Structure formats: C-alpha cells, structure tokens
TrEMBL record:
Catalytic activity annotation: S-adenosyl-L-homocysteine + H2O = L-homocysteine + adenosine
Assigned keywords, A-Z: Cytoplasm, Hydrolase, NAD, One-carbon metabolism
Name recorded for this polypeptide: Adenosylhomocysteinase
S-adenosyl-L-homocysteine hydrolase NAD binding domain ranges (all copies): 185-346
Sequence positions that bind substrate: 53, 125, 150, 180, 184
Enzyme's top EC category: hydrolase
Gene: ahcY
Length: 418
C-alpha cells in the first residue's frame, strides 16, 4: 500500500480513537449502512485533502464502504493525528500521505501523491487540491467529474475561480449547507478553538479581554465560548451588518488598531490575509497571546512580525515567544495555523457528524449528477440538508411537528389572505 505516515506502530491506538469518535457520529453511521448496501461510489477514485483526524477517518470508512477508492492527504501541516493516519493504512487499507508537522515541501509532495492516483472526485478542505490541479496538474482535469469543498475559505477561492471562468469542473460547497455552517462553524469552531488556546497556554480566560477578528459563523462561535468562560469580548469587523449584530449580541466592537492595545487574547477567524499586521503586534501589551482559527496562517502577518522581532524562542509546545524591538513580548500559538487542530483535536465528533454526512451524500450526488452540472460552485441540495437534519434529530430522540393539510394550503395560497 502506497503511503507516507509517521509511524505504523501507532495503528492500534488510532483504531480505538476512531471507534470512540464514531460512537458520537450516528448520522454518518446510518449513511454507512446505506452505502454498504447501495455502493453509490462504486468505481470512483476519490482524492481527499482533509484534516486527518478521528472524525475524518470515520468519513473515509464510509466513502470506502460506498465503493470508493480513497486516497487522503492532510489539509494542514499541523492537523494530522499520526495514530489515525496509521490506523487508516493498517486497518482500512486507505492510502494516507500525512505527517504531523510536515514542512511545506512535504505538504505539496503529499498533495501530488493524492493527485498521482488520478481522482475522479476531489474532496477539499481549503481548495488546495483544486488549486494544484488548475495550476500544476491540468492533465488530470479530463478525468475529474466533480468535487466538494468543506470550508468557507475554500468556497471563497472556488467562487473567485468560477467568476473568472477558470473553474474546470463542478463543485458542491458543503460548507454552505445549513447543517454545516450553523453547527460546525459556530459550535465546533467555538469549542475547539478555546480548547486549543487553553491547552497551548494554560492561561485563565475569565476576566481577560478576548479579541475576535471576524464575526462570521466561526467568529460568533468563538465569541460565544470566550464570553461563556468569563472573558470580556471585543469584536473587530469590516462588514457593517455583522458588526451591528455583534453589538446587539452584547460585545464591544471597535477597529483592530484600538483593540490591539487592549486585548489579552487575539483570535482571527476571517478567511482573509494579514488581518493582524505588524502595526497591531507593536501596539499589543506585553504578554499578548495571538492565535488563528481561520483556515490558513496568512491571517497573521508573520513576516511583518519577524521584521520587528529581535529574538524568538519556543517557550511551550505550540507557543513561540517573540521579543519585539520595543521590548514587549507577544506569543504566537501553533505557528499561526489552526489552533484547534494544532494544539487540540479539532471539532467534537458529534458536530462533524453532520458536516461529514453532507460530504458523503454530496460525493454520491456528484457522481450521479455531474454530467448535468456546469463548471461552477453549487450549494448543497435542500433535500440533502433536510435529510441530514432529520437524521440528526432522530439520533437525538427529538420529534417535531408536521404541517396540517390546512396549514399547507394556507402557506401555498395567495387568495386566503388573513
């Protein structure tokens, strides 16, 4: 089996952790049973660039149960759980190219190893596979029927490609499913980000000033959890509607150049580049802690920080102290990469249950419908979103009402009036 992982001997530990995560993924388990019978992905080679975690392992098992040949690499150099990678290779026969802490050169070698398998469907978390295909591996395009994308950042990139007329095959924006961004981005990112920051620093959040840069679904979640731990939350935004929402939710809202001098913790969740820049680092108080929970580390201007850093040193796992020219220290967590995966374990499996259920169902949808789709980014079909929500409610033992015939008629009528 072709692979590149850290240690095959970790496989048994990984298997147990994958099983533990699977116990909180009832929707995906129901889909697995269906896929085992129907084989909706029979004959498909599926190239996936995802965070190699216990939850992702459960998704890969479902895809394989559906008939797909799955080849997996990491979507972030620090997000791989090496025991999970080993278990997927040893126990599930899935080719994995992922090592926690891999350098940039290895990261792209692993991307290309997945592409060497000539996938028919791509499954991305940040659109790196798609970008590599369109820039360096155009020879593969004729064999690709479609793809899926998991993240806000990736969808932004893909929509830009579609707008420029360069996107070469259809892609479903799994991120935009209501059962994904309302729960994964808000509740998953909120909890796992604070988990990562606390594991990395062991600092008290209560009573601190916690600056959240960006108030999208991820920012809402981080702000909510920081507030729940007793922090005084400050939100920075460029969108007036989101800024107004943050005010109405009870948070202080101000420009980052003002918040920089106040904050004890900073966390970027915007999907954009250089949100915290050199001037912001210089304005921070001594001892400020800076993290990112957006997809790429470019949210922090680390080159700009390096220019005003006279010395730096790792002071804890996942914590680097930067002593700046002005004599103040700032602490960057997890190399500026996703702190919830660099220093913690990512989203809880019960949240990823819905996100990965969408991934599995959208992969099958893409196989069945690719011939009728244009080269653009599609939202998740409503029937898939509704099915995932219904399955999750059933798994939680929650029942809801149904419309009566009279109510259905009223909602569909324009003559009944009030």
């Amino acid at each position: 089996m072709k692979c590149d992982i850290a240690d095959h001997a970790l496989a048994e530990k990984g298997r147990l952790r994958i099983e533990w995560a699977g116990r909180s993924m009832p929707v995906l388990n129901l889909i697995r049973k269906r896929f085992e019978q129907e084989k909706p992905l029979e004959g498909v080679t599926l190239g996936a660039c995802l965070h190699v975690t216990t939850e992702t392992a459960n998704l890969c098992q479902v895809l394989k149960a559906g008939g797909a040949e799955v080849v997996l690499c990491a979507s972030n150099p620090l997000s791989t759980q090496d025991d999970v990678a080993a278990s997927l290779v040893e126990h599930d026969g899935i080719s994995v190219y992922a090592i926690k802490g891999e350098d940039t050169e290895t990261y792209y070698q692993h991307l290309n190893a997945v592409l060497d398998a000539a996938p028919n469907i791509t499954m991305d978390d940040g659109a790196d596979l798609v970008s590599q295909i369109h820039s360096e591996r155009k020879d593969l395009i004729s064999g690709i029927i479609g793809g899926t994308e998991e993240t806000t950042t990736g969808v932004i990139r893909l929509r830009a490609m579609a707008a420029d007329g360069v996107l070469a095959y259809p892609i479903v924006a799994v991120n935009d499913a209501m059962t994904k961004h309302l729960f994964d981005n808000r509740y998953g990112t909120g909890q796992s980000t604070l988990d990562g920051i606390i594991r990395a620093t062991n600092r008290l959040v209560a009573g601190s000033y916690f600056v959240v840069c960006g108030y999208g679904w991820c920012g809402r979640g981080v702000a909510m959890r920081a507030n729940g731990l007793g922090a005084k939350v400050i939100v920075t935004e460029v969108d007036p509607l989101r800024a107004l929402e943050a005010v109405m939710d009870g948070y202080q809202v101000m420009p980052l150049n003002q918040a920089a001098a106040i904050g004890d913790f900073f966390c970027t969740v915007t999907g954009d580049i250089h949100v915290i820049r050199q001037e912001h680092f210089l304005a921070m108080k001594d001892g400020a802690i800076v993290a990112n929970s957006g997809h790429f580390n470019v949210e922090l201007d680390l080159d700009g920080l390096a220019e005003v850093t006279k010395k730096s040193r790792p002071i804890r796992d996942f914590v680097v102290e930067h002593t700046m020219d002005n004599g103040k220290n700032v602490y960057v967590l997890g190399e500026g990469r996703l702190i919830n995966l660099a220093a913690a374990e990512g989203h809880p499996s019960s949240v990823m249950d819905m996100s990965f259920a969408n991934q599995a169902l959208c992969a099958a949808y893409m196989k069945d419908n690719a011939a009728d789709l244009n080269k653009q980014v599609y939202v998740v079909p409503d029937f898939i979103d509704a099915e995932v929500a219904q399955l999750k409610l059933a798994a939680l033992g929650v029942e809801i009402d149904e419309l009566t015939e009279e109510q259905e008629m009223y909602l569909n009528s324009w003559t009944m009036g009030t």
